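[Meeting: bench + compute handoff]

Bench side (C.D.) handed over the final construct sequence. Compute side (W.E.) agreed to return the predicted structure before the next meeting so the bench team could plan truncations. Sequence as handed over:
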Amino acid sequence: MTSLNAHLAHVFVRHAERPALGCLGVSFSYVELQSRVAAIVLQLREAGLTAGDRVGLHLARGPDLIAALLACLHEGLCFVPLEPEFPLDRLQGIADDARVLFVVQDEQPSRSLTPSLRLRPDLAEMPEPPDLDDGLPAYMMFTSGSTGKPKGVVIGRAALSNFLDAATRRVGVGPDTRWLFTTTPAFDISLLEMLGPLWIGGYVEVVCAPAHKDPVALLQLLDSRPDLNTLQATPAFWRMLLKAGWQGRQGLVALCGGEALDATLAAQLSETAGQLWNCYGPTEATVWSMMAQVEQPLAGHNVRLSQSLDGYRHWVLDESGNEVGPGGEGELCIEGVSLAQGYWQRSDLSEQAFISWQGRRLYRTGDRVRRIADDEFQYLGRRDDQIKLRGFRIELGEIEANLRRIDGVQDAAVRLLGEGDEACLVGYVETRGEGAPGRGQIRRALHLILPHYMIPSRIVLLESLPKTPSGKIDRKRLPEPA
């Protein structure tokens, strides 16, 4: 496998005069982007940064965010994304925890982190890259921790290179790909949006704030730019686009991941896009580990996880650590060269999540699946989403999927509130359009398909479900029922 820097250098030379990225109507060629990357490289060297050092990226959405990321890769620095829209105290805590030497910031940042390195608006000739070990960390992505403290996932250069190579080949990314970069850099799927097109000579359209999370603004951009042909988003974000009136585009390649893709949304997207790809993978396995094109009609009436990317393999283990055969259920585990090096300074968590099994290093995803066949699985939910109520074992995800199938329901979430005899299921429902169903209609529809003990005793109607910055449903912010 070609090293990260060698591959990118070849692409930048081969496609020097082609457009590499654009933002707010301004386009930059590969040679122009390289000149900006070179200037940042020189500034990083002036600051005394060398391969293996950790650098925070606290930059507004724009060309410099991508240029700074490329400069870090060129120098063998481990970049730590710091989303400017997040609370400053949280970002400073992450920067301190990661022990970054500098936080790279815009020339005139609205808010500062320390110690800071402000980018100058220079251009330069690209210096020779240092001699790098591809075992060095490429980036550290902080994810939510069950203790309330974010934990850093360390991804190596070889892991990132393998993923970019495998994912772009799977989806067919090429020089004619024009990909919208909409995801927050604090969510690792953004790396495919920023680096995937550049890996192969394509083009990145940077959607600036606040348009990147405004479905109406995004629809206007799509309408005005028919050349833009690839968009990646979570199911929750795709539903927002549909609710905002998106009529679709047959030439669009739509990637969906980050949460389970249900059959109803899959049918809607299959009708409105040229291609629909179901993507699965945890941060600990470098973005996506499975990417499969969704074909209608669906086998078994559900969207299955399938088609491991090159360099990945998936196993299903039961509670005793034994491999599960076809038809069996268990925890999905991932093997491959793109697994994380572990959690930053958390050996206890690393030992729990990254295990040795029959001489193989596996990552335990925490996702429950039914094994359908070799490399094909049915997602059943998170291990911690399975609850017991009045003695019945219940998958909250199954109730949510059936709520979304009801006409007029845009999205849904379910949780268990209370304890003992006071425990009850609460369904949170986001409706759409005129003639949206009321609570009674929703309950009657559920009674036709679910047993009585799976019917939420309380239904909360919401104009929109709360979302995380990554575009997923924010379950912690679901309101208490009145």
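W.E. noted at the follow-up: The mean pLDDT is 92. C.D. will use this when planning the next construct.
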